[in-house]
Amino acid sequence: MAAKKVFIVYAHQSTGSFNAAAKDAAVEVLAGQGCTVEGSDLYAMKFKATATAEDITGEVKNPDHFRYAEETKLAWEAGKLCAEITEEQCKLTEADLIIFQFPMYWFTVPAIMKGWIDRVLTLGFTKT
After folding, report:
1. Largest Cα span, the chain
2. From CA 17, how far away is CA 87, in angstroms rounded?
3. For residue 17, which of 46, 39, 50, 43 has the smallest C-alpha distance?
């Protein structure tokens, strides 16, 4: 495998969990193959799971009828998303491979991972 940049988005609150062991094994194997591995440990970062107007720096287009998807697309285009989001978007942009490591909670991702997906994968940045 050619050296690649790997980004792991990790969502589990226990360092002794199976998910932590799986993440650690991935880091070890990938680094051993010459990859650069960067991660975001959402619980350790205390990543905010809620998508709100606070994700935008400055004024929003329509404060009386706030629509998150539209407002964050405009903020992304204008470079007015909060640092927490833009830092994660930068990690995504630089990655050749992205791994999402999380437990299944009621057939879906944990709320903190869902919040990461909703907030980081904004319209414009990942889709139009």
Report:
1. 53
2. 27
3. 43
AA letter at 110: P
Token pair listed for 113? 């991972």
- The model's pTM is 0.92
**pLDDT tens for residues 12-57?**
999 999 999 999 999 999 999 999 999 999 999 999 999 999 999 9
Q: How far is CA 105 from CA 7, 17, 109, 111, in A?
A: 22, 14, 6, 9
Cβ contacts of 75 within 8 Å, gap of 6 or more: 55, 56, 57, 58, 60, 81, 122
